[in-house]
Amino acid sequence: MKGFGFVLWLALLAGGLGAQPAAAPEPMAADPLKIIGPPLGQPVSPAELDGCTKATAALLRCPVCQGLSVNDSPAPLAVKMRGQVRELRAQGYTEEQVLAYFEKSYGQFVRLQPPFAGINWLVWLAPVLGLALGGWLVLRLLARGASKGATAPATAGAAEDPELRAYLERARALSRQEHNSKENS
Amino acid sequence: MNRRVLLAGLLLVLPLLAVLLANLGRDPHLIDSPLVGKPAPAFRLAKLSGGAPVDLQDFKGKPVVMNFWATWCVPCMQEHPTLAAASQHLRDEVQFLGVVFDDEEQRVGSFVDQNGSPYPALMDPEGKTAVAFGVQGVPETYFIDRQGVIVSKYVGPLDPDSLARELQKAMGGTR
């Protein structure tokens, strides 16, 4: 009888313990399903997971670093983000979905390669346009320098300065005068 | 030629000056976030003190002040008395929550034992809730209105005036 009571007590205890987790909800972090929907790809195999995680994390900016990707940064936040990238890729979320997941909370700033859309075209085109404009300016200056060098007299600067021009004319006249007087004597 | 150089310089400098002037009166602690104006990400986090996990849904109809902090963060220690006093004063009107960012449970426990905390300290061991809120560092505080919408994000230690101003925004929300 004593043994039966002990077994009953154990069963009640086990039942009580078993019922507890169902009554108290488990902790749950932000659910990607609610943020970016269901995975659109296939779960990545464990063999490929490291490579996929690195490739996706390399496209994310570490929010607390200076120009470092989540893949390259040792910052605790980047480590946490890397862990989440790994988890999401393992679940079958595509690279674009993972980037969108972080973009929802950090904004487009978190993408190291902003998409070719809207005003972002400027980011991609500005360096090319700047380079083209700089090249055109350099070529134009070089061409102008070459044409000036070929045609301009040594006193080209004097022609632009009226005072200097007057001085030069006076000096030339004096020089001619002196030359003539020497020849006459 | 000189006039042309002056014009080109002005074209470059004037837009920069305009941007600087437009932002002159702006509070540098109030940082733009894509989540401002949107519903706060859902979460259910374990309390340091144990017991049932805390779910954001539990506080529907009540403004929530969500403070991300850590014991290794000096500005977090500076703002703690401000937050503690406000949470006690507004116990019935506003729910304050402290989410621990990148810290050890034992250290957080010692801090809470020594300094006290009138509001729950929630553990986010994998940092998923922090990432979902777009946390970049600590302290960062999110003000959530009665409808569960984030009304502002404050970066840095809160002083009583800033806390009152942001609280007013969160409490102004209607259900």
Helix-strand blueprint:
The complex is a heterodimer of chains A (185) and B (175).
Chain A: H1 2-23, H2 32-36, H3 46-57, H4 76-91, H5 95-106, H6 120-151, H7 156-160, H8 162-184
Chain B: H1 2-22, E1 44-47, E2 54-55, E3 64-69, H2 74-89, E4 95-100, H3 105-115, E5 121-123, H4 128-132, E6 140-144, E7 150-155, H5 160-172
Order of H and E elements of chain A: HHHHHHHH
Mean pLDDT across all residues of chain A, rounded? 81
Question: How many separate domains make up the residues of chain B?
Answer: 1
Sheet with most strands: strand arrangement of chain B: 2-1-5-4-3-6-7
Shape of chain A: rod-shaped
Mean pLDDT of chain B: 92
The rounded Rg of chain A comes to 40 Å
Largest sheet of chain B: 7 strands, mixed
Overall radius of gyration of chain B:
20 Å
SSE class of chain B: alpha/beta
Main sheet of chain A?
A: none
Helical content band of chain B: 25-40%
**The CATH homology group name of chain B:** Glutaredoxin
CATH hierarchy: architecture of the domain at 39-110 in chain A = Orthogonal Bundle
CATH topology (level 3) name of the domain at 39-110 in chain A: Helicase, Ruva Protein, domain 3
> Poorly predicted ranges of chain A (pLDDT <50, ≥5 residues)?
1-22
CATH class of chain B, anyone?
Alpha Beta
Question: Beta-sheet strand percentage of chain B?
Answer: 15-25%
CATH architectural group of chain B: 3-Layer(aba) Sandwich
Q: How many separate helices of chain B?
A: 5
How many extended strands of chain B? 7
